[in-house]
Design goal:
Blueprint lengths: L2 H21 L5 H12 L18 H4 L18 H7 L17 H12 L15 H6 L1
Helix pairs in contact: 2-5
Amino acid sequence: MNIHRQLALAACLAACTTLQAAGDAPVDFVKQIKPILADRCVECHNSETLLGELNLQTRALAFKKRKTGPVIVPKNAEKSMLYLVLTLPAKDLKAMPATGHRIPKDEVNLIRQWITEGANWPEGKEGAMTPEHKKSKK
């Protein structure tokens, strides 16, 4: 096969891959990620308990600079502690969640995809969460 055919084939494959990826709907923070964080993370990682210097109640708090480095690195799940601690073996002391059942693999993969897509997290009420223990005090 000559070089022109190889280049044309490579371009065609790249275009097909891009079209397929473009056809997939991006992860929706409010509908898909927020419920996971609200149910499994915010109870410990909030302004009252602040475990691991991490507050996941809002985008601004989640992306706040920390001594130990960023929790979420948009477009790079492999450098995002939020994703990495969910993939550690259950017996690892840094594995999350620290108590209760592990987050199902499909939800962990959804978090990974969300981070890889840029970790879009809306500001304001849409992106804010309140821990269950605070809700029950009202």
